Amino acid sequence: MILDTLADIPLTLAIPAALVALLVLRRIPVIGPLVNLVTWLLIGIALYMAIDQRSRLDPYLGPVADWLRPQRQEVIGKELRVRMAQDGHFWVMARFGGTEKRLLVDSGATITALSADTASAAGLKPRQDAFPLLIRTANGTINAESATVDEMRIGNIVARDLEVVVSPAFGGANVLGMNFLSRLQSWRVEGRTLILVPHHPQPVAKG
């Protein structure tokens, strides 16, 4: 009966009533600290959920979401294992040019692609090609420039002299393409885990 009565209360009245009850409970010496703890816990959960949902659409929030979640990539033996993100994709953290960036693993991309901001942060200088470089994407054909990453490290994997394409049209997105994956001894997906196996595993960079 009580639950039925509560269910009939309009939401516009239930929320103010709950806030008043919360304020009253916070003034009770014994219950007050517990109420404060639960309140901050609920706020933290709501903030986490908001960032997690938004990060699926906003690549700038991706690093924040990764920081809040458990580590998604780890080296086990000679393998680098990457757990699938909640958006259904695999993301890796790569170090290059003195910076660390989040890249989407895309076996459908022929070449690794970097945003203009990422290229700038890594100190990359795109080459002035004799002919315009045209890249076909899901959103149409875009103009891009080519560049070379001297060394890219992902876990225990190192790729040197890696060719990339750079364009402002990529927005804030960075993509790890087949020209990186093809250098590996092997790569495969088992369940919700991407497994990358390098020919020559390297020590994992600290920090």
Compose a concise summary of this entry.
The chain folds into 2 domains: 54 residues, no CATH class; 128 residues, Beta Barrel (Cathepsin D, subunit A, domain 1). It has 6 helices and 11 strands.
Search tags:
207 residues; alpha+beta; Cathepsin D, subunit A, domain 1; 2 domains; four-stranded mixed beta sheet; 6 helices; disordered N terminus
Q: Secondary structure elements and their pairing?
A:
Elements: H1 2-7, H2 11-26, H3 31-55, H4 62-68, E1 73-76, E2 79-83, E3 91-96, E4 99-105, E5 112-115, H5 116-121, E6 133-137, E7 140-154, E8 157-167, E9 175-176, H6 178-181, E10 186-190, E11 193-197
Parallel strand pairs: 4-9, 5-8
Antiparallel strand pairs: 1-2, 2-11, 3-4, 6-7, 7-8, 10-11
Report on this model:
The chain is of the alpha+beta class. The chain has two domains: 2-55, no CATH class; 70-197, Cathepsin D, subunit A, domain 1 (Beta Barrel), CATH 2.40.70. The protein has helices at residues 2-7, 11-26, 31-55, 62-68, 116-121, 178-181; strands at residues 73-76, 79-83, 91-96, 99-105, 112-115, 133-137, 140-154, 157-167, 175-176, 186-190, 193-197. The protein has a four-stranded antiparallel beta sheet, with no helix packed on it. A four-stranded mixed beta sheet has the order 5-8-7-6. A hairpin with a 2-residue loop joins β3 and β4. α3 crosses α4 (62-68). The longest helix is centred in the N-terminal third of the chain and has 25 residues, at 31-55. The chain starts with a helix and ends in a 10-residue tail after the last strand.
